[in-house]
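Design a sequence for this backbone.
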């Protein structure tokens, strides 16, 4: 695929947060990102966030970016919660009839877990695995193993390593759920119909154009559908090796100003 169609076809660009816009291990937002996104918005292109995080777990530097750029389109919790222009377009809580058996399974097998909605993140315990996986992402969580009983849940996290994958996959408990590993000690768990791609599709249907008019940047396994289904999928240079073949283009790494580099190379900004 060449670059020639990008400037005439792209109406919206969505960005993953972790290791795409922002380096979570060092709490660093490249200096080039905010000016690049401002130029993109000034060019009349919709700028959106598409992340596995819930809004309550956004880093302060991303909150600042959203305010500075004026971003009002957010696809969060892997597409389970979608906001655009001040309206909630999708709020797809997992039914409690599905959540409860999952939590019962975790307790039976002594697996730490977290449950998430757009406002809160609650963990079953603050164990070494929870700390290792979650603390670099956010410290804005509470210990409440029963939080799910009285609150809608958009997403579940298991704090498990790859050796435990067969236990989960062969249990029968997760037949209507999607499991995506994002850390050596954790997986995102959400409904099979959910993905960043579905969230973006909700936005473009609302705005009146198509997925072919969307560009998206990502780096992780939860970006597979997104990069495959938008018109122009861009993998970061630091992306997971399984993601890169699904992308239309590969840019430089986040720490090499990969966002600014490709937006400039494509002609979307100058």
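Sequence:
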């Amino acid at each position: 695929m060449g670059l020639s169609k990008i400037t005439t076809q792209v109406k919206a660009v969505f960005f993953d947060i972790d290791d795409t816009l922002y380096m979570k291990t060092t709490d660093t937002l490249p200096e080039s990102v905010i000016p690049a996104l401002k130029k993109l918005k000034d060019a009349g292109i919709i700028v959106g966030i598409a992340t596995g995080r819930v809004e309550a777990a956004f880093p302060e530097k991303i909150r600042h970016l959203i305010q500075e750029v004026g971003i009002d389109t957010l696809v969060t919790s892997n597409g389970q919660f979608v906001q655009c222009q001040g309206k909630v377009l999708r709020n797809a809580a997992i039914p409690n009839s599905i959540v409860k058996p999952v939590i019962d399974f975790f307790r039976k097998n002594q697996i730490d877990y977290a449950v998430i909605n757009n406002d809160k993140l609650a963990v079953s315990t603050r164990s070494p695995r929870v700390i290792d996986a979650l603390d670099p992402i956010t410290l804005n969580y509470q210990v409440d193993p029963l939080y799910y009983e009285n609150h809608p849940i958009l997403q579940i996290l298991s704090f498990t390593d790859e050796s435990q994958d067969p236990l989960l996959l062969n249990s029968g408990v997760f037949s209507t759920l999607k499991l995506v590993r994002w850390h050596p000690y954790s997986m995102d768990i959400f409904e099979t119909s959910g993905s960043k791609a579905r969230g973006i599709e909700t936005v473009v249907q609302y705005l009146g154009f198509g997925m072919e008019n969307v560009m998206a940047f990502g780096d992780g396994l939860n970006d597979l559908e997104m990069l495959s289904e938008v018109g122009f999928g861009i993998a970061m240079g630091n992306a997971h090796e399984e993601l890169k073949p699904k992308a239309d283009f590969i840019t430089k790494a986040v720490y090499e100003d990969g966002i600014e580099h490709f937006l400039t190379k494509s002609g979307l900004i100058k």
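The mean pLDDT is 95.
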